[in-house]
Amino acid sequence: MRRNQGGLLSDGAYLLLFIFSFICIVYMAGDPDRYMYNIIFLNVAFLIAIITYFTNVTTGLILNILFIFGYGTYVLYTTVVQGALVSAQNYVWLLFTPMLTLITWMMTQANHKLQNENARLQKLNSSLATMDEHTDLKNNLSFQKDAQTFIALSTRYQIPLTLVVIGVKYWEEIQRLITREQMTETVYAITQFSLSSIRNNDSLYMLNSDNPTWGLLLFTDREGANVVIERLRQRNREMNESMDRSKRNVELNLRIGAYQFDPETSQSPLEFLALARKQLEYDV
Protein backbone atom coordinates (compact mmCIF):
# COMPACT_ATOMS: atom_id res chain seq x y z
CA MET A 1 0.00 0.00 0.00
CA ARG A 2 1.33 3.41 -0.94
CA ARG A 3 2.03 5.58 2.08
CA ASN A 4 0.94 9.22 2.06
CA GLN A 5 3.39 12.10 2.15
CA GLY A 6 2.37 13.10 5.67
CA GLY A 7 3.30 9.66 7.00
CA LEU A 8 6.69 9.62 5.26
CA LEU A 9 7.50 13.15 6.44
CA SER A 10 6.46 12.27 9.99
CA ASP A 11 8.62 9.13 10.03
CA GLY A 12 11.58 11.04 8.62
CA ALA A 13 11.22 13.85 11.16
CA TYR A 14 11.04 11.49 14.13
CA LEU A 15 14.04 9.52 12.84
CA LEU A 16 16.05 12.72 12.48
CA LEU A 17 15.05 13.75 16.01
CA PHE A 18 16.40 10.47 17.40
CA ILE A 19 19.62 10.85 15.42
CA PHE A 20 20.00 14.46 16.56
CA SER A 21 19.44 13.49 20.21
CA PHE A 22 22.04 10.71 19.91
CA ILE A 23 24.60 13.10 18.39
CA CYS A 24 23.97 15.62 21.18
CA ILE A 25 24.45 12.95 23.85
CA VAL A 26 27.71 11.75 22.30
CA TYR A 27 28.99 15.30 21.85
CA MET A 28 28.18 16.40 25.40
CA ALA A 29 29.56 13.18 26.92
CA GLY A 30 32.84 13.68 25.05
CA ASP A 31 33.42 17.14 26.56
CA PRO A 32 32.69 16.96 30.32
CA ASP A 33 34.60 20.19 30.98
CA ARG A 34 31.96 22.18 29.07
CA TYR A 35 28.98 20.23 30.41
CA MET A 36 27.12 23.20 31.94
CA TYR A 37 27.93 25.33 28.90
CA ASN A 38 26.42 22.68 26.56
CA ILE A 39 23.38 22.13 28.80
CA ILE A 40 22.52 25.84 28.63
CA PHE A 41 22.71 25.95 24.84
CA LEU A 42 20.83 22.66 24.52
CA ASN A 43 18.00 24.14 26.57
CA VAL A 44 17.99 27.23 24.37
CA ALA A 45 17.87 25.05 21.23
CA PHE A 46 14.92 23.03 22.55
CA LEU A 47 13.13 26.18 23.73
CA ILE A 48 13.34 27.61 20.21
CA ALA A 49 12.17 24.27 18.80
CA ILE A 50 9.16 24.15 21.14
CA ILE A 51 8.16 27.71 20.24
CA THR A 52 8.48 26.79 16.55
CA TYR A 53 6.29 23.72 17.05
CA PHE A 54 3.44 25.73 18.56
CA THR A 55 3.76 28.74 16.24
CA ASN A 56 5.29 28.56 12.75
CA VAL A 57 8.60 28.28 10.93
CA THR A 58 8.87 32.07 10.49
CA THR A 59 8.96 32.53 14.25
CA GLY A 60 11.57 29.80 14.48
CA LEU A 61 13.75 31.47 11.84
CA ILE A 62 13.55 34.83 13.60
CA LEU A 63 14.50 33.24 16.93
CA ASN A 64 17.40 31.40 15.27
CA ILE A 65 18.67 34.65 13.76
CA LEU A 66 18.49 36.30 17.17
CA PHE A 67 20.26 33.30 18.71
CA ILE A 68 23.03 33.35 16.09
CA PHE A 69 23.47 37.10 16.57
CA GLY A 70 23.55 36.77 20.37
CA TYR A 71 25.86 33.75 20.30
CA GLY A 72 28.17 35.47 17.79
CA THR A 73 28.32 38.50 20.06
CA TYR A 74 29.18 36.24 23.02
CA VAL A 75 31.99 34.51 21.06
CA LEU A 76 33.33 37.88 19.90
CA TYR A 77 33.30 39.15 23.49
CA THR A 78 35.18 36.12 24.84
CA THR A 79 37.70 36.36 22.01
CA VAL A 80 38.40 40.11 22.14
CA VAL A 81 37.94 40.89 25.84
CA GLN A 82 38.95 37.62 27.50
CA GLY A 83 41.42 36.51 24.84
CA ALA A 84 39.83 33.06 24.41
CA LEU A 85 40.68 31.02 21.33
CA VAL A 86 38.02 30.34 18.67
CA SER A 87 37.73 26.58 18.14
CA ALA A 88 35.39 24.24 16.27
CA GLN A 89 33.34 23.84 19.45
CA ASN A 90 32.25 27.45 19.15
CA TYR A 91 30.42 26.62 15.92
CA VAL A 92 28.65 23.45 17.06
CA TRP A 93 25.56 25.13 18.50
CA LEU A 94 25.38 27.46 15.52
CA LEU A 95 24.61 24.29 13.53
CA PHE A 96 22.70 22.27 16.15
CA THR A 97 20.10 24.92 16.94
CA PRO A 98 18.91 25.56 13.33
CA MET A 99 18.99 21.80 12.70
CA LEU A 100 16.67 21.14 15.64
CA THR A 101 14.35 23.92 14.47
CA LEU A 102 14.26 22.39 10.97
CA ILE A 103 13.43 18.95 12.38
CA THR A 104 10.67 20.47 14.51
CA TRP A 105 9.23 22.25 11.48
CA MET A 106 9.20 18.94 9.58
CA MET A 107 7.29 17.32 12.45
CA THR A 108 4.80 20.19 12.47
CA GLN A 109 4.24 19.95 8.72
CA ALA A 110 3.80 16.19 8.97
CA ASN A 111 1.25 16.52 11.78
CA HIS A 112 -0.72 19.13 9.83
CA LYS A 113 -0.80 16.93 6.74
CA LEU A 114 -1.95 13.92 8.75
CA GLN A 115 -4.64 15.98 10.51
CA ASN A 116 -5.89 17.36 7.19
CA GLU A 117 -5.92 13.89 5.67
CA ASN A 118 -7.79 12.52 8.68
CA ALA A 119 -10.38 15.32 8.48
CA ARG A 120 -10.80 14.71 4.74
CA LEU A 121 -11.30 10.97 5.25
CA GLN A 122 -13.79 11.53 8.08
CA LYS A 123 -15.77 13.93 5.90
CA LEU A 124 -15.66 11.48 3.00
CA ASN A 125 -16.72 8.61 5.27
CA SER A 126 -19.67 10.56 6.68
CA SER A 127 -20.80 11.54 3.18
CA LEU A 128 -20.60 7.97 1.84
CA ALA A 129 -21.75 6.00 4.89
CA THR A 130 -25.16 4.42 4.40
CA MET A 131 -25.42 2.53 7.71
CA ASP A 132 -26.02 3.76 11.23
CA GLU A 133 -23.08 2.68 13.40
CA HIS A 134 -25.16 1.92 16.52
CA THR A 135 -28.07 -0.07 15.06
CA ASP A 136 -26.70 -1.30 11.72
CA LEU A 137 -29.78 0.15 10.07
CA LYS A 138 -29.72 2.08 6.84
CA ASN A 139 -29.39 5.80 7.55
CA ASN A 140 -30.96 8.95 6.13
CA LEU A 141 -28.70 8.97 3.07
CA SER A 142 -29.69 5.42 2.23
CA PHE A 143 -33.35 6.26 2.83
CA GLN A 144 -33.27 9.03 0.24
CA LYS A 145 -31.75 6.70 -2.34
CA ASP A 146 -34.15 3.84 -1.61
CA ALA A 147 -37.20 6.08 -1.36
CA GLN A 148 -36.59 7.29 -4.90
CA THR A 149 -36.80 3.68 -6.09
CA PHE A 150 -39.87 2.93 -3.94
CA ILE A 151 -41.62 6.04 -5.26
CA ALA A 152 -40.84 5.08 -8.86
CA LEU A 153 -42.24 1.57 -8.34
CA SER A 154 -45.32 2.93 -6.58
CA THR A 155 -46.02 5.38 -9.39
CA ARG A 156 -45.38 2.94 -12.23
CA TYR A 157 -47.33 -0.04 -10.89
CA GLN A 158 -49.93 1.89 -8.86
CA ILE A 159 -48.82 0.22 -5.62
CA PRO A 160 -49.74 2.17 -2.46
CA LEU A 161 -46.67 3.33 -0.54
CA THR A 162 -46.76 4.60 3.04
CA LEU A 163 -43.96 6.05 5.15
CA VAL A 164 -44.23 5.51 8.91
CA VAL A 165 -42.06 7.73 11.12
CA ILE A 166 -41.37 6.63 14.69
CA GLY A 167 -40.00 8.79 17.49
CA VAL A 168 -39.80 8.64 21.27
CA LYS A 169 -42.00 10.94 23.32
CA TYR A 170 -40.15 13.38 25.58
CA TRP A 171 -36.76 12.02 24.50
CA GLU A 172 -34.86 15.16 25.54
CA GLU A 173 -36.17 14.80 29.08
CA ILE A 174 -35.70 11.02 29.19
CA GLN A 175 -32.04 11.13 28.15
CA ARG A 176 -31.31 13.27 31.20
CA LEU A 177 -32.68 10.52 33.44
CA ILE A 178 -30.86 7.51 32.01
CA THR A 179 -27.23 6.71 31.30
CA ARG A 180 -25.64 6.62 27.86
CA GLU A 181 -25.49 2.83 28.03
CA GLN A 182 -29.20 2.68 28.81
CA MET A 183 -29.89 5.06 25.90
CA THR A 184 -28.04 2.71 23.53
CA GLU A 185 -29.91 -0.32 24.89
CA THR A 186 -33.22 1.51 24.52
CA VAL A 187 -32.57 2.47 20.90
CA TYR A 188 -31.51 -1.10 20.14
CA ALA A 189 -34.63 -2.55 21.80
CA ILE A 190 -36.96 -0.28 19.82
CA THR A 191 -35.08 -1.17 16.64
CA GLN A 192 -35.48 -4.89 17.29
CA PHE A 193 -39.22 -4.88 17.93
CA SER A 194 -39.69 -2.54 14.95
CA LEU A 195 -37.89 -5.05 12.73
CA SER A 196 -40.04 -7.86 14.07
CA SER A 197 -43.20 -5.91 13.26
CA ILE A 198 -42.67 -5.56 9.50
CA ARG A 199 -42.53 -7.85 6.50
CA ASN A 200 -39.34 -8.87 4.71
CA ASN A 201 -40.05 -6.61 1.73
CA ASP A 202 -40.49 -3.53 3.98
CA SER A 203 -37.52 -1.39 4.98
CA LEU A 204 -36.57 0.16 8.31
CA TYR A 205 -34.24 3.17 8.52
CA MET A 206 -32.58 5.16 11.29
CA LEU A 207 -33.36 8.71 10.18
CA ASN A 208 -31.81 10.48 13.17
CA SER A 209 -29.58 8.85 15.78
CA ASP A 210 -29.18 11.91 18.03
CA ASN A 211 -32.93 12.27 18.59
CA PRO A 212 -33.87 8.68 17.71
CA THR A 213 -36.21 8.67 14.73
CA TRP A 214 -36.98 5.62 12.64
CA GLY A 215 -38.61 5.42 9.23
CA LEU A 216 -40.60 2.51 7.75
CA LEU A 217 -41.26 2.27 4.02
CA LEU A 218 -44.27 0.01 3.55
CA PHE A 219 -45.85 -1.16 0.32
CA THR A 220 -49.35 -0.72 1.71
CA ASP A 221 -52.05 1.91 2.03
CA ARG A 222 -52.80 4.03 5.07
CA GLU A 223 -55.16 1.45 6.56
CA GLY A 224 -52.53 -1.28 6.17
CA ALA A 225 -50.00 0.99 7.87
CA ASN A 226 -52.40 1.31 10.83
CA VAL A 227 -52.05 -2.45 11.40
CA VAL A 228 -48.27 -2.06 11.61
CA ILE A 229 -48.64 0.98 13.88
CA GLU A 230 -50.90 -0.91 16.27
CA ARG A 231 -48.42 -3.80 16.27
CA LEU A 232 -45.64 -1.36 17.17
CA ARG A 233 -47.65 0.14 20.02
CA GLN A 234 -48.41 -3.34 21.36
CA ARG A 235 -44.70 -4.28 21.29
CA ASN A 236 -43.93 -0.97 23.01
CA ARG A 237 -46.39 -1.77 25.82
CA GLU A 238 -44.91 -5.25 26.20
CA MET A 239 -41.42 -3.78 26.45
CA ASN A 240 -42.50 -1.38 29.20
CA GLU A 241 -44.21 -4.16 31.15
CA SER A 242 -41.25 -6.51 30.96
CA MET A 243 -38.49 -4.00 31.61
CA ASP A 244 -36.18 -4.36 34.60
CA ARG A 245 -37.05 -1.49 36.95
CA SER A 246 -33.65 -1.74 38.64
CA LYS A 247 -31.95 -0.86 35.36
CA ARG A 248 -34.40 1.64 33.90
CA ASN A 249 -37.35 3.16 35.72
CA VAL A 250 -38.57 5.37 32.88
CA GLU A 251 -41.31 4.15 30.57
CA LEU A 252 -40.88 4.80 26.89
CA ASN A 253 -43.78 5.80 24.69
CA LEU A 254 -43.62 6.12 20.94
CA ARG A 255 -44.78 8.92 18.72
CA ILE A 256 -45.86 7.51 15.37
CA GLY A 257 -46.93 9.28 12.23
CA ALA A 258 -47.73 7.88 8.79
CA TYR A 259 -48.30 9.38 5.37
CA GLN A 260 -49.35 7.63 2.18
CA PHE A 261 -47.45 8.74 -0.88
CA ASP A 262 -49.36 11.03 -3.21
CA PRO A 263 -47.57 12.20 -6.37
CA GLU A 264 -49.60 15.41 -6.35
CA THR A 265 -48.31 16.53 -2.94
CA SER A 266 -44.83 15.02 -2.80
CA GLN A 267 -42.46 14.55 -5.71
CA SER A 268 -39.21 13.85 -3.87
CA PRO A 269 -38.10 11.67 -0.93
CA LEU A 270 -37.44 14.78 1.17
CA GLU A 271 -40.97 16.09 0.63
CA PHE A 272 -42.36 12.65 1.36
CA LEU A 273 -40.35 12.51 4.60
CA ALA A 274 -41.35 16.04 5.62
CA LEU A 275 -45.06 15.23 5.23
CA ALA A 276 -44.66 12.03 7.25
CA ARG A 277 -42.77 13.87 10.01
CA LYS A 278 -45.57 16.40 10.17
CA GLN A 279 -47.95 13.61 11.14
CA LEU A 280 -45.92 13.13 14.34
CA GLU A 281 -47.34 16.44 15.57
CA TYR A 282 -50.80 14.88 15.78
CA ASP A 283 -49.63 12.00 17.98
CA VAL A 284 -49.42 13.58 21.41
UniProtKB/TrEMBL annotation:
SUPFAM superfamilies assigned to the protein according to its UniProt record, in alphabetical order: Nucleotide cyclase
One Pfam entry name: GGDEF
GGDEF domain span: 129-280
InterPro entries: GGDEF_dom, Nucleotide_cyclase, Rev_trsase/Diguanyl_cyclase
Coiled-coil positions: 107-134, 222-249
Keywords: Coiled coil, Membrane, Transmembrane, Transmembrane helix
Transmembrane segments: 12-29, 35-54, 61-85, 91-108
The protein's name in its UniProt record: Diguanylate cyclase
Origin species: Cohnella zeiphila
Source organism phylogeny: Bacteria, Bacillati, Bacillota, Bacilli, Bacillales
